[in-house]
Amino acid sequence: MPKTKNRPAGGRRKWIIATVAALAVVSIGAGAWTMRSAAAPAASSAKDQRVTLDPARFFGPARQAYEVAAKNPALLAQLHCYCGCDKEMGHQNLLDCYRDDHGAHCPICTGEALEAAKLADEGLPVEQIRRVLRDHYAQGD
């Protein structure tokens, strides 16, 4: 008959305790990671409540353009910017120019935003505002 090793009961108990402890550590870590992941969108959404940069950071027409963007983000989001920032910076619309400081340094963006606000205040629909901006600012687009 082959000899078998009999493990003492204490060895088995240590193994079970170690396994339970390891599972507890993994569970706690997973719970903390889940809580952090769930909190991340809330933290970023609180930080990103402003759709544009603060107009108070700028002066003159640039400040006016940032004020337009802050007050009319839905309008600017529907308009194309004709300065070329879509190709060079990946901007998708005129509002994107005011999410960073690009709009402060670009006379085309500033002109488009101010003209769009004036036309919207006059009651022109977005389709007509698009046409006017295209006629004034498009250069070979």
Detailed description of the structure:
The protein is mainly α. It folds into two domains: 8-49; 55-137, no CATH class. The protein contains seven helices and no strands. The protein has helices at 9-47, 60-71, 73-76, 85-88, 102-105, 107-121, 126-137. Helix 2 packs across helix 6 (107-121). It is elongated and about 85 Å long.
Count of runs of 4 or more consecutive helical residues: 7
Beta-strand content: under 5%
Number of strands: 0
pLDDT averaged residue by residue = 81
Shape: elongated
Instruction: Tell me the helix content.
Output: 55-70%
Query: What composes the largest sheet?
Result: none
N/C terminus separation: 91 Å
Question: Stretches where pLDDT falls below 50 for ≥5 residues?
Answer: 32-48
Q: What order do the helices and strands follow? A: HHHHHHH
Count of individual domains: 2
Indicate the structural class: mainly alpha
Rg computed from alpha carbons, rounded to a whole number of angstroms: 30 Å
